[in-house]
Amino acid sequence: MRKLLECGLSLLLMTGCSKTGTINTRVIFYNATSSVATLSATWNDNALLSSALAQGQSSGTPSAPYLNAPAGTNLLTVVAGTDTLLRKNIYSKASGGTTFILYDTAMPAGRPQILQLTDDLSLPDTATIKYRLIDLSPDSNARADVWLVNGTTDSLRLDSAAGFIGPVPSATAAQAFNSIKYHGEAYTLKIKKTGTGLVMASINGFPLLSRGIYSFIFSGISSGAGATGPKITVLQHEPG
Question: Is the preceding peptide bond at 108 cis, omega within 30 degrees of 0?
Answer without folding.
Answer: yes
